């Protein structure tokens, strides 16, 4: 087959090249994004990679090898290499060849393949979790090591489908209202209903664990609340910070039949344990100096939870993975805008929280009007000769900071702010270096919010911003998530966490809530050209490029 009009080239190393200028680019990108990961995205040709994990997530969402190969054949210029077709069929078939089931109180690892069971029984990575071999097709595994078993099987390339079921937890009479307590009518959108139903799966063992991936501002909290109401059970919700926790509380009190006495807050300020308890990752991972245990892990056993929700699951700290491996009998829901993890622990999310259950391209939800249209701009600026010399002589570890804190960025920020203030826009300026942010705060006489800013002060400034009493906030990395500022429509990024793709997605997400006047959101990232700042920026943009966002590349910037 040879069709030069098609946008894809599939290569024998399982990489996929896609032509950005091709008329079918957008459609092909959305389809291959279901089973492949974007690796790099220069101007004209983007490169995707088919990995084992991307195939297993595709399998968990209902795709099979035939579906994937048909998509590749439909859009490829050339024949699909035979080895690629074989590898896709082989690796995607591995998901579910082993199943974890519970029969007569015994937790079993089972397969129709007796040779595979023999291989697993004798594998040193899995053997510590096996209690005995029952017969040719079944192994009894230690119930307390259910999560460890799944982790190990994923690592060796045979991820198990967990059908052992879950504890129901203590009953909670919770229902989502049709009219909120603020007297606002609301209902779930079609994609929210699909996400809920996919996770719930009629209450069967085929649901109850996994991750829902949707953009910021698309209503993941509402999805979580509807899932709680489906299971009607005591629920532990873990969030990134106190601000996020209190947003959950406000939504639960407004949109469900629950009252304050049924909702607890567990963090550095309060230690309440109630039928719905909202904790923070920070308090759970607190450990006194030189202590071996995490004292607040006891929260996981403090009530008979029927569901645990991991909000912003891409931020899940390593110690919480450890305890999650030990509570696999609890239903587990991960919510996130991106499954990208810079620490490479996507496999742990897959095996311990569960596979990706639902995902929808950001641009698709934008087309439906549920999130704001967003334009992304990268502005590349030079350094002066003195700073260039400093950069040339600096150690590698210092180069990024020198470039990221380029003083020439202040002039660009002034121009952008002046332009958007003339349009009465609401502006967030975000970065990672506090001294840089202090200088920007001084330039505009604007509030600066950092990790050391008291929660009360943060909430006060957010409320003033919502009421349009102030039109500009300068925020550190605390602005990456859990800021509910629906009218913010401009973000200026002056520095970021190296090449973090998930941070870029989270930051864009801060301005993507739909606007009352249907106005477009603007995301600016200012980088120093020909430096590590520009290199890291290219990597940061990968996830958003995969979602269909294009960055307008500019040298300097003028609004005249």
From TrEMBL:
User: Keyword Nuclease, does the record have it?
Assistant: no
The EC class name is isomerase
Q: Would I find Magnesium among this entry's keywords? A: no
Gene3D superfamilies in the cross-refs: P-loop containing nucleotide triphosphate hydrolases
Q: Which residues cross the membrane?
A: none
Q: What is its EC number?
A: 5.6.2.4
Name recorded for this polypeptide:
DNA 3'-5' helicase
The family note in this entry says: Belongs to the helicase family. RAD25/XPB subfamily.
- Give the InterPro entries listed for this entry: ATP-dep_DNA_Helicase, ERCC3_RAD25_C, Helicase/UvrB_N, Helicase_ATP-bd, Helicase_C-like, P-loop_NTPase, XPB/Ssl2_N
* Top-rank taxon, per record: Archaea
User: Pfam families in the record, alphabetically?
Assistant: ERCC3_RAD25_C, Helicase_C_3, ResIII
Which UniProt keyword terms apply here? ATP-binding, Helicase, Hydrolase, Isomerase, Nucleotide-binding
Cite the GO molecular-function annotations of the record. 3'-5' DNA helicase activity; ATP binding; DNA binding; hydrolase activity
**Which residue range or ranges hold the Helicase C-terminal domain?**
411-560
The reactions it catalyses are:
Couples ATP hydrolysis with the unwinding of duplex DNA by translocating in the 3'-5' direction; ATP + H2O = ADP + phosphate + H(+)
Helicase ATP-binding domain boundaries: 201-357
């Amino acid at each position: 087959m040879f069709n030069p009009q098609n946008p894809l080239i599939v290569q024998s190393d399982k990489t996929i090249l896609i032509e950005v200028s091709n008329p079918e680019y957008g459609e092909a990108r959305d389809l291959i994004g279901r089973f492949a990961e974007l690796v790099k995205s220069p101007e004209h040709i983007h490169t995707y990679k088919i990995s084992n994990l991307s195939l297993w997530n595709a399998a968990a969402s209902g795709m099979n090898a035939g579906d994937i190969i048909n998509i590749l054949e439909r859009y490829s210029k050339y024949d699909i290499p035979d080895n690629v077709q074989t590898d896709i069929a082989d690796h995607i078939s591995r998901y579910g060849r082993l199943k974890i089931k519970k029969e007569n109180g015994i937790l079993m690892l089972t397969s129709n393949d007796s040779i595979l069971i023999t291989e697993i029984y004798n594998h040193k990575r899995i053997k510590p979790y096996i209690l005995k071999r029952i017969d040719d097709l079944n192994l009894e595994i230690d119930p307390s090591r259910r999560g460890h078993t799944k982790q190990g099987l994923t690592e060796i390339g045979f991820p198990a489908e967990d059908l052992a079921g879950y504890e129901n937890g203590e009953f909670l009479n919770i229902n989502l209202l049709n009219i909120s307590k603020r007297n606002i009518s609301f209902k779930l959108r079609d994609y929210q209903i699909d996400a809920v139903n996919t996770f719930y799966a009629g209450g069967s063992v085929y649901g109850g664990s996994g991750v829902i991936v949707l953009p910021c501002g698309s209503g993941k909290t509402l999805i979580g609340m509807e899932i709680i109401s489906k299971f009607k059970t005591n629920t532990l919700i873990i969030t990134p910070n106190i601000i996020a926790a209190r947003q959950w509380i406000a939504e639960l009190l407004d949109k469900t039949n629950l009252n304050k006495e049924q909702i607890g807050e567990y963090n550095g300020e309060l230690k309440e344990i109630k039928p719905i308890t909202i904790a923070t990752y920070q308090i759970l991972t607190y450990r006194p100096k030189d202590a071996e245990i995490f004292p607040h892990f006891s929260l996981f056993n403090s009530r008979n939870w029927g569901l645990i929700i991991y909000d912003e699951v891409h931020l899940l700290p390593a110690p919480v993975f450890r305890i999650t491996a030990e509570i696999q009998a609890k239903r587990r829901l991960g919510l996130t805008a991106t499954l990208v993890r810079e620490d490479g622990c996507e496999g742990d999310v897959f095996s311990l929280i569960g596979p990706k259950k639902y995902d929808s391209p950001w641009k698709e939800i934008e087309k439906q009007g549920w999130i704001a249209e967003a334009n992304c701009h990268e502005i590349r600026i030079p350094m002066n000769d003195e700073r260039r010399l400093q950069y040339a002589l600096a150690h590698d570890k210092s180069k990024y900071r020198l470039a990221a804190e380029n003083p020439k960025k202040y002039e660009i920020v002034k121009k952008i702010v002046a332009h958007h203030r003339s349009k009465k826009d609401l502006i967030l300026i975000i970065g990672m270096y506090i001294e840089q942010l202090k200088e920007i705060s001084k330039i505009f006489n604007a509030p600066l919010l950092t990790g050391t800013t008291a929660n009360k002060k943060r909430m006060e400034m957010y409320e003033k911003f919502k009421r349009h009493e102030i039109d500009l906030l300068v925020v550190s990395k605390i602005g990456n998530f859990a800021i509910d500022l629906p009218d913010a429509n401009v973000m200026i990024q002056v520095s970021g966490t190296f090449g973090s793709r998930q941070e870029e997605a989270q930051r864009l997400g801060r301005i993507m809530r739909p606007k009352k006047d249907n106005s477009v959101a603007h995301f600016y990232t200012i980088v120093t050209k020909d430096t590590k700042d520009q290199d890291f920026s290219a990597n940061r943009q990968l996830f958003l490029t995969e979602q269909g966002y294009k960055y307008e590349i500019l040298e300097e910037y003028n609004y005249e």
